[in-house]
Amino acid sequence: LKMSWAWFYPPLRLLMAVCLCRALRAPTSTFRSDLFNFYHSLILADGKETTVHLLKDIPKRYYFVLEEGRAPAPFTITVTPCDVPIEWSILRHKASASFLGKAARGDHDTQEISKSPRTPSTVSTIFNYKGNSVETYVGMSYHSALYMLEFLSTERDTHITVYLTTDTTSGHLYPELPLDPRIDIIGIGHTTVTLAWKHSPSVLQHRENIQYCLLVNEKHNYKSLCAAETAIRSSGMKVPPMLALSLSPYLLEPQQVMILSNSELSIINRASSGEVRQICVGTKNTYTVPSLSASTQYYFDVFVVNLLTNASAAYTGTFARTLEEPEPKLTELKDGKVVQVVLDGKKQKLYSLQYQARHKRIQFTFQSCRGQVQVHITKNGKTVVSENISGLRYFSLKGNLLDTYLVQLRSTEQSNSSVKVQVSSHFHKPLFPLLPDSLKIKSFSKLRTCNSVTIAWLGTQEESKYCVYKKRIEEDQVWLELQSADRCAGPESRPRAEKVLCKYFYDINLQRAVTTETIKGLDAGTLYLFDVYLMGPSGIPVRYYSKVVKTRKKC
């Protein structure tokens, strides 16, 4: 039998002596099994948190013993399941002091042990648990006893954390919870919930090293920070190394959003299964969670986190349902009149318009001025249109006289959006001009020179006025210019110096309804933003999509 280096370390020597004693008294197959189990078990470190990976239906064992000469002392074991419920137990192998003393010193004879009719030792289970809660066992450890921890997962592969300590004088790895660890809900609004909880004793003693972190989601409460991080990963998102310490935006993944304001860190993890919001609030024990959805149930967890050790303890989670959104104020639409609506992207409020039909057939026109807009139209309570729009859209609807139409608008983006709305029963008097198949502006790379650019755009079969504008911009302004452009604003909003020309154009044959224009007098190696405005008979303009072109640097 080959001995490893562990034989020369007294606690491990003691453990191996016990295993050898049992193994040598058993049949050959049992002997090999005991040795296999020993070499596939591990010594549990004292004073350190150990991560244990469990395979389904395969038990895993850890052992611990005390160093020689130590007096009986209390010890604690804390086990934190990070996913599914597990089974775990503590077994004590107690042998006579003389036997273990000889084993620890190496004063034993293998043949003597094998001939011994029995070994003076007993094995007893002193604790067992099944579940997914964080559980702590407190007991007394003796130098003449060997302890074994056995862990088993019957649902699927998982991992847990285990913390053993026999030193009760140097403080706690885990922050302490108050006697009442419940989270109180002290206020509920349409989009906010205010929480309060009692201070952790650890915060009062070590304020600079402790902070509170919240977890907000729509699925369920989490019994540990470890379980929450596992759930976030399994939903397809990647969690920062430590919730409380992820202060750098470079640690975030594309599906994460970090918000840092008023010394509060908020990390929003997005996935198809929903949103998990993580917020660290320092040592405050009250917090109002903002930007929630109305009439939605949320689950709230509070963790007190030790910044030095990354260890955490969970308060008892709670849940609350935000208030229902109040009925939006209705604005009456009048036949043929144009209404421009600005939509708040941050609050995601609905804007409602109502129209009572004067004719059986009507037409709604929507022109998105900035951003994308969600349009929902009901007729007498039944949905007839539900779409996201950008640009110009028409919806022709049939019904009866005095039908009531309700139009609800909402921004699909976090930034503000705006849209023009018109309803009319006079189809022969269109408010907006006839549009081409595409509102894109094309540029010709081969026709670019150091001081000129040639662009082209599609026209229609209706004679209309087209005005071209140019604007000199810098490289770092391109994204902002394109995103902030108001597509409903006409040429009157532009400085006169940016105007290039206006021209009338049409062609009965749509295949030939295209026009080009060469803009001269430009600077070499310079970026320009070009816009084309189509002016209809009513005077309401439609703006083509802006085009950015750079003149050649050398010719």
TrEMBL record:
Pfam families: NDNF, NDNF_C, NDNF_N
Leader peptide range in chain numbering: 1-23
Places the protein is found: Secreted
Domain Neuron-derived neurotrophic factor N-terminal residues, every copy: 40-169
GO biological process terms on file: nervous system development
Neuron-derived neurotrophic factor first Fn(III) domain residues: 193-322
PANTHER family: NEURON-DERIVED NEUROTROPHIC FACTOR (PTHR14619), PROTEIN NDNF (PTHR14619:SF9)
Name this polypeptide is given: Protein NDNF
Gene Ontology molecular-function annotations: heparin binding
Gene Ontology cellular component terms for the protein in this record: extracellular region
Domain named Protein NDNF C-terminal: residues: 382-555
